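dumping this here so i dont lose it again. seq + smiles for nicotinamide-adenine-dinucleotide
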Amino acid sequence: MYNQKQIYREKTVFVTGHTGFKGSWLCAWLSLLGAKVIGYSKDIPTTPAHFEFLKDNLCSNVTSIIGDVLDREKLRNSLVQFRPEIIFHLAAQPLVQYSYQNPVETYETNVVGTLNILEAIRVNQTLNDCVKAIVNVTTDKCYENREWVWGYRENDPLGGYDPYSASKAASEIVTASFRNSFFNLNNYKKTHNTLIATARAGNVIGGGDWAKDRLIPDIARAVSRGEKVIIRNPMSTRPWQHVLESLNGYLLLGEKLLIGKSEFASAWNFGPNDNGAMITVEEIVKIVKQQWDSTEYIVEKDNSNNSNRSSGSMSGNDIAHEAMLLKLDSSKAITSLKWKNNWSYEQAISKTIEWYKNFYLERKINTFDDLQAFLMASLTKYGDK
Ligand SMILES: NC(=O)c1ccc[n+]([C@@H]2O[C@H](COP(=O)([O-])OP(=O)(O)OC[C@H]3O[C@@H](n4cnc5c(N)ncnc54)[C@H](O)[C@@H]3O)[C@@H](O)[C@H]2O)c1
């Protein structure tokens, strides 16, 4: 894990979606590792926003560009100006429910946005020379969901029922097509210098997420206002994994690509541990209450006939279809990247609640402490790589 420090130190790293939940944590981590981080996002997606709290401390050295991935010229100019060695592409319209209301925006952002990044590298010799690696962040929802109990492997068929899932599957296909057609591994170091991979993780939790219709942010918001949390689907289950687990996977993957290991230029799953990862919403609320005793909730009947979702909104404000069962098989990452989850689901939930409690009760941002604790857990559990 600490070897990453050497690899990212002084490297110019371009992070799209840096003002978002995952992007802000990634920028903080990369900054700790000594990278020169350039962020590119179209806006600050929520109020409050995690990135805004990090701007004056952990992320004070991050160069922040407000730009749209659909603005080809600005995107290309920004890339050419900073000549990154690696791009982590996280900018996306990431919400399933929103994608039902705004399918065109979702497809444009998630598919054409990815295309614009890849095309910028393809057509520009300066970028072709400097960008050694691209990690495109997609999702576990990119698989054709068979509603079965087994975990999906990287070579399972892609699909996607709702616009968000399908757009991420399409982003995967665009990436694989560019890798085959223009960044073919057989021509690596001959006609091009860029290794491209995709990373598929599921829903993650952690402090600093204020997106709509996500259970823990919804609970934190309600408790902080002294309101009762309304739970419509108490028996819904979903996996629970801390955001740092997936970011650890992206960084490990980026590291391999940066050092020219072309066998890593493919798709990778980073899922939660099996044991106990699928627990119900009501159980989660009870765990939160143990830690934040002013938590009160009421269960309201769900009439949507859709009460066993495993992903996306858990507050139950949605009526559209979402996958019921969705599990990732992360054997490839565990075996080849030596990636593992560092925290149990109990620790992930506890760290997340602690973060929000600190924020709402003390106005303290726990991001640095969480990063340190995560790195320590990695060291004590698995030793240095
Ligand atoms: N949060 C999760 O649980 C989760 C799970 C699986 C996959 N993902 C993926 O991880 C990535 C980050 O998700 P998140 O939860 O941090 O989302 P978020 O909504 O918090 O952040 C999205 C970011 O993308 C930027 N963005 C959106 N449209 C853009 C555009 N057209 N041009 C430039 N920037 C744009 C926003 O400004 C923001 O910085 C996404 O690709 C998402 O699909 C997230």
